[in-house]
Amino acid sequence: MVMDINSSHVSGHLRAFALAAPRELSSSGMVAGSLPPRWLKIIQDVIASPSPASSLAAENDTRCGEQILSYGNMEKVVIGAILSLITLLTIAGNCLVVISVCFVKKLRQPSNYLIVSLALADLSVAVAVMPFVSVTDLIGGEWIFGHVFCNVFIAMDVMCCTASIMTLCVISIDRYLGITRPLTYPVRQNGKCMAKMILCVWLLSASITIPPLFGWAQNVNDEKVCLISQDFGYTIYSTAVAFYIPMSVMLFMYYQIYKAAKRSAAKHKFAGFPRPEENEGMVSVNGVIKLHKESEECTNFSRLLKHDRKNISIFKREQKAATTLGIIVGAFTVCWLPFFILSTARPFICGTACSCIPFWVERTFLWLGYANSLINPFIYAFFNRDLRTTYRNLLQCRYRNINRKLSAAGMHEALKLAEKPEFVL
């Protein structure tokens, strides 16, 4: 019969006996030299061997603690400067959006409520999440903010980032319906409906943070590591709701807007003066008939030109919406796709206990996702003349008469289009 002395139960008893043996022997007057050499060797081996509990603790320390790095002073300065710059620019850009829409009358429209919600979500990421991640990265990845705050931090991170992503998804749906159904889509003109949509976005984002707080999937949280739950079911659920489903919807909406713009371009295509048919040219020998036909053609051309100005305006709006949404979807995909692919694959690669992905890879993908909160305000400002004008006036401390300047700029743009009509070839 072979005894497995490596089992926790047996080795625990042997270790307790070996530790107590010297004391018992000394109290009974016996000395170690009086024991057989074989028994002495067994006792020494058992005492020298580590206990199962200490081995398990050492294994856990190695798995989670091996990700902690140590940086030199120069590396800390460079990393701190980059992360601080990203955080400050994100705060400044999204504050500009909120101030512009809330305090400028022309921008205070229900159609811009979603942009404010997106800016608030991105601002929350910059204020409530980025500083703690920056400090953790500067000290090499060690979590120093305590066990309780770890769960709070993960909840804020997941909710704010998900709210930002899902607001982008709702914006794409809003743009699509506003372009394809301008008369039957009243939500853009109804502030209450838009507010309900925004509330649903935030509630759905918060629902992803609830399971780890109520015991479905516990976060990985010890003295050194703070990591979102790696439970297989929760990982699939959270990444699907927070990223894969919104991304699929955004891509579908962009494709639909692109098709609508393409159909509009074919419908409103204008090639110039209508040409007479060849047989008409052969019959029209008399110069008077030629002059009459040319005058009719000029009249038809002016009528078509007047009608096409509206069509050109509609087409330009659709084309602009397609371009804007395409850049937004492209930037969103480039920023967040690597992080969510890594987050989805990590439990299947490393298991549910801890992360085995190199720390610098995880942090690079995470900050690439955070960068999406930085570039969103600048994307909207680049394609929105009113936002650009408001930004410029606010940064130059010209707070007075912003609404009047926006109205004057809009009137100038309309007159410019009326004087120089554009033809889509």
UniProtKB/TrEMBL annotation:
UniProt-listed InterPro entries: 5HT_7_rcpt, GPCR_Rhodpsn, GPCR_Rhodpsn_7TM
GO terms (BP aspect): adenylate cyclase-activating adrenergic receptor signaling pathway; chemical synaptic transmission; circadian rhythm; positive regulation of MAPK cascade; smooth muscle contraction; vasoconstriction
Matches recorded under CDD domains: 7tmA_5-HT7
Membrane topology summary: Multi-pass membrane protein
SUPFAM superfamilies in the record: Family A G protein-coupled receptor-like (SSF81321)
Subcellular location: Cell membrane
GO cellular component: a single term: synapse
Occurrences of domain G-protein coupled receptors family 1 profile (ranges): 93-380
Taxonomy, superkingdom: Eukaryota
GO molecular function, a single term: G protein-coupled serotonin receptor activity
PROSITE patterns according to UniProt: G_PROTEIN_RECEP_F1_1 (PS00237), G_PROTEIN_RECEP_F1_2 (PS50262)
Keywords from the named record: Cell membrane, Disulfide bond, G-protein coupled receptor, Glycoprotein, Lipoprotein, Membrane, Palmitate, Receptor, Transducer, Transmembrane, Transmembrane helix
Transmembrane segments: 77-101, 113-132, 144-173, 194-214, 234-255, 325-345, 365-383
Family (UniProt): Belongs to the G-protein coupled receptor 1 family.
Function of the molecule: G-protein coupled receptor for 5-hydroxytryptamine (serotonin), a biogenic hormone that functions as a neurotransmitter, a hormone and a mitogen. Ligand binding causes a conformation change that triggers signaling via guanine nucleotide-binding proteins (G proteins) and modulates the activity of downstream effectors. HTR7 is coupled to G(s) G alpha proteins and mediates activation of adenylate cyclase activity.
Name by which UniProt lists this protein: 5-hydroxytryptamine receptor 7
Gene source species: Gopherus evgoodei (Goodes thornscrub tortoise)
